[in-house]
Amino acid sequence: MDEITAQELKARLSHSSRIQLVDVREPEEFEICNLGGELIPLGDLPKQSARVRRDIPVVVICHHGFRSAQAINYLTQRLGYENLLNLKGGIHAWATQVDPSMAQY
Questions:
Q1: Annotated active-site positions, please?
Q2: What's the structural domain count of the chain?
């Protein structure tokens, strides 16, 4: 599984808008802190997988990187996606390494 660090994601976001962010946490978690993008809770992914693009890089985000890894495994093994990146350390890594002002939980 391909991963991207918080610092690498920050650099890519500042240089390109051709990236999709998919957050697989629950709505309550998304309200606390998020990077924007599409909120598709992990449990809803089978029904909403069509919202995940295939034509540009997609970074999958959760709290620490475990649920996003599950989402990527599902999307690659079941649906043949090949353009997915796991945010290493999740939103927590972003908050501690890139944006210390971001709320943490």
A1: 62
A2: 1
